[in-house]
Structures are given as structure tokens and as C-alpha cells.
Amino acid sequence: MNELLTTVFWSAITLAIFFCWRRLFVAVKWPVLHPILWATAAVTFLLTLGRYPVAAYREQTAPLVWLLGPAVVAMASPIWQQRRFVVSHWKALFLVVLLGIAFSAVSVLLLGPFVGWREAKSLVPKSVTTPVALGIIEESSFGKAPQDQLIEPLLAIGIMISALSVAVFGPLVLQLTGVRDHRRSV
């Protein structure tokens, strides 16, 4: 029963902090206030303040991590609804995906000499969703010696930095480069 209570407690705290920041983010519409960034910082602060082990927190909020899988699958519905747009702009989308892959690979190759190749290799799947990255970690580490396995905490940090940098700086970069959504201006 105690384990259930701590699971409910930490999951509720995490969700409450996230939705409070989300409310502020939606009201202010300022990318630097992104809820994932500040909810992560707030939960980290609470764990540090209470000297609560991160491993225990992770285990007790596992139901939230499990929900990431269905959330990613749920994103397929809006994409399917926009399939005509996606197909009609396949060249631009292909170019963006290709440039993203190239940038990700080059950034990892540039980090290798400084942080070590095992560490850099662990950052290769940093630009995917968390459920996909967890699957990659499991598959690429299964049956391998510890020195050949991906470093899961490093990948988690890489995913967060990658996602948050896009969420926080993406709108600013689009604005500075003059990228506009012409569908909304009509």
C-alpha cells in the first residue's frame, strides 16, 4: 500500500507542476517558460530538497513513462488527418528530416573527441521520442558487455536537451529567419 501511495504522490506532484507551468506558458506564450523545462527543474529541486533518490522517483513515476507510448501513437491521428498536406509538401519535409539527421550525426561526431566515443554513441538517438529511445536502449544494449551498452542517463539528458532546445528556441529561430505559416495569414 505504501508503494501505491508514493506512486500516486509523485505522479500527482509531477502532473500538478507540469499543468501549472503549462497554464502559465499558454497564457504568456513565451517559449522560455516551456512547461517541460520548468516542471523538470521544479521536480529536480523537490527531489534535491527532500534528498529523495532519483531512482526511487523514476520507479514510482513509471506509469507516467508508460503513458508516453500511447501519447506518441495518438499523434498519428492528426498527422493522418493532414496526410494531403504532408504528401503535397513531401520534398520540403524530406529535406527537413534529412537536415535534422545530418545535424544530429555531425553534432555527435563533434562531441566524440571531447566526451568520449561511448558517451557520444549514447547520444545518437537523442532526436527521437522518449519511448522510441527507450526501445533503442533496450535493443542496442541487450546481450552486450557493459562497456558496449548505451548510457541510458546520458541519452535521457540528450533527449531532454534536444527537445527543450527546439521547444524554447525553435519559435525564435523561425521568427528571426522570417519563416511564416501562410495558411494562417489568409
Class from secondary-structure proportions = mainly alpha
Question: Which parts are unreliable, with pLDDT below 50 for 5 consecutive residues or more?
Answer: none
Number of domains: 2
Largest sheet: none
* Quaternary class: single chain
State the end-to-end CA separation: 57 Å
Rg over CA atoms? 19 Å
Please tally the helical runs, counting DSSP H or I stretches of 4 or more residues.
10
What string gives the helices and strands in order?
A: HHHHHHHHHH
Shape: globular
Q: What fraction, in percent, of the residue positions are helical?
A: over 70%
Classify the beta-strand content into a percent band: under 5%
Q: What brief labels describe this structure?
A:
single chain, 186 residues, mainly alpha, 2 domains, 10 helices, globular
Word description of this protein:
This protein is mainly α and 186 residues long. The protein has two domains: 74 residues, no CATH class; 97 residues, no CATH class. Helices cover 77% and strands 0% of the residues. The radius of gyration is 19 Å and the shape is globular. The model has no long low-confidence stretch (mean pLDDT 83).
Layout: helices, strands, pairs:
Elements lengths: L1 H27 L6 H15 L4 H7 L1 H13 L1 H6 L1 H6 L1 H26 L1 H6 L7 H12 L10 H25 L10
Helix pairs in contact: 1-2, 9-10
Explain briefly what this protein structure is.
By secondary structure, the chain is mainly α.
